[in-house]
């Protein structure tokens, strides 16, 4: 008998990982449906609708609406009667797990997509994390870092936690589309500036973008034709980062709030920088894996899954936390040492290509759903 699985997801426009699950989860074993919270008119909704998945939309514009949204979600679940509910992201966890409990869904899973973010920046919110931990029958941890936080800071039983790394469609990164890459170059680097330093990080304090800009400013002294491309350039630390950018020539950088074609985008970069400010703030960090798969030299601090895969000067250049000078020196090393850097890039791809395949992730999910 097929198992009915309902994904409950909140506050997402586009997330290719959910598209991959929808496409590749075994249709002989599972019927997959979706409840999207605050995702009306999203690219995710369009994809699911166009591919004939059953999708329900729920709006929850404020905390006051949560009780109503829970009841609406519970009604949907009672009517569809899933064997499993799988929730993703904070609002979906609260609404979805509560509704699933009310609807008497026995298997209530959520994937923990954040690490100690609430503990550091929003301590009053930790009680809601613990509430979700209690309601869930299983919690998917996406890294050892998340597992440690769940056990040590939130007292979750080891028996409730299942570790499943994010998976990636390897071919999209390794065998990139050359025509699309050229389109992206014309879009973001029409003057063919070099070297190109890439960053894909929200403008929020813990991502550490504020330490990249001074390093890049110094790099411009030696490479005045360089270009800094800052993608996903929005967030609660935008004002501070914008002030730092005022210190470098306007023609030497671009800020881009959103680019849909991530898999081909990496080919624009001569070097990529990702420097979260501590080893625990990143829950996973898809950037680590994507950069390595795409064959771009990676400069990074250890955080999230980076704690598990980074090997300094073997598959990346590791830099200390909150250290612009070290980032600058790492940029110079990557740009001026072709042979060891080419070997580092080769090692990086080999180190992640099997562990983080989409096939492995889907298999692990199916194994969990069949328990």
Short description:
The chain is α/β, with parallel strands linked by helices and 371 residues long.
Mean pLDDT metric: 96
Looking at CATH, which topology of the largest domain would you report?
A: Rossmann fold
> What is the architecture of the largest domain at the second tier of CATH?
3-Layer(aba) Sandwich
Q: Multimeric state of these chains? A: single chain
Secondary structure: helix percent: 40-55%
Radius of gyration: 21 Å
Cα distance, first to last residue? 14 Å
CATH class term of the largest domain: Alpha Beta
Output the helix-strand order: EHEHEHEHEHHEHEHHEHEHEHEHEHEHHH
Widest sheet, order of strands: 3-2-1-4-5-6-7
CATH superfamily of the largest domain, by name, is Glycogen Phosphorylase B
How many strand segments? 13
Task: Report the sheet-strand fraction.
Answer: 15-25%
**Overall body shape:** globular
Q: Could you say how many structural domains there are in total?
A: 2
The largest β sheet comes out as: 7 strands, parallel
Description:
The structure is a single chain. By secondary structure, this protein is an alpha/beta fold. The protein has 2 domains: 3-167 and 357-369, Rossmann fold, CATH 3.40.50.2000; 170-352, Rossmann fold. It has helices spanning 16-24, 43-50, 66-80, 90-102, 117-121, 126-135, 144-153, 170-174, 178-188, 209-222, 238-245, 262-265, 286-294, 306-309, 324-336, 338-352, 358-369, and strands at residues 3-10, 30-37, 54-58, 84-88, 107-112, 138-141, 161-163, 196-200, 227-231, 253-256, 271-274, 298-300, 317-318. The strands form 2 sheets. It has a 7-stranded parallel sheet with strand order 3-2-1-4-5-6-7, sandwiched between helices. α10 crosses α15.
């Amino acid at each position: 008998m097929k198992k009915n699985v309902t994904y409950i997801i909140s506050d997402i426009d586009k997330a290719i990982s959910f598209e991959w699950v929808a496409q590749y989860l075994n249709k002989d074993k599972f019927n997959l449906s979706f409840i999207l919270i605050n995702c009306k008119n999203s690219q995710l909704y369009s994809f699911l609708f166009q591919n004939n998945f059953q999708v329900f939309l729920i709006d929850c514009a404020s905390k006051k609406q949560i009780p109503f949204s829970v009841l609406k979600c519970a009604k949907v679940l009672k009517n569809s009667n899933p064997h499993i509910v799988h929730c993703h992201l904070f609002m979906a966890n609260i609404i979805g797990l509560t509704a699933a409990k009310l609807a008497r869904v026995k298997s209530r899973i959520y994937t923990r997509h954040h690490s100690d973010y609430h503990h550091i920046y929003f301590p009053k919110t930790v009680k809601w994390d613990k509430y979700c931990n209690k309601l869930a029958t299983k919690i998917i941890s996406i890294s050892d870092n998340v597992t440690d936080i769940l056990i040590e800071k939130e007292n979750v039983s080891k028996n409730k936690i299942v570790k499943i790394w994010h998976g990636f469609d390897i071919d999209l990164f390794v065998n990139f589309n050359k025509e699309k890459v050229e389109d992206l170059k014309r879009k973001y680097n029409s003057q063919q500036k070099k070297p190109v330093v890439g960053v894909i990080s929200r403008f929020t304090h813990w991502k550490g973008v504020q330490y990249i800009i001074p390093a890049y400013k110094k790099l411009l002294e030696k490479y005045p034709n360089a270009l800094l491309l800052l993608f996903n350039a929005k967030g609660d630390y935008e004002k501070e980062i914008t002030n730092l950018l005022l210190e470098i020539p306007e023609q030497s950088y671009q800020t881009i709030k959103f680019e849909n074609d991530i898999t081909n985008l990496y080919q624009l970069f001569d070097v990529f920088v990702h420097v979260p400010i501590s080893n625990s703030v990143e829950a996973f960090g898809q950037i680590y894996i994507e950069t390595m798969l795409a064959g771009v030299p990676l400069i990074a601090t250890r955080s999230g899954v980076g704690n598990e895969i980074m090997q300094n000067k073997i598959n990346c250049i590791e830099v200390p936390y909150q250290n612009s000078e070290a980032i600058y020196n790492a940029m110079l090393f990557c740009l001026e040492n072709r042979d060891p850097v080419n070997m580092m890039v080769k090692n990086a791809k080999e180190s992640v290509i099997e562990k983080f395949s989409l096939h492995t992730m889907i298999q692990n999910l199916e194994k969990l759903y069949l328990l």
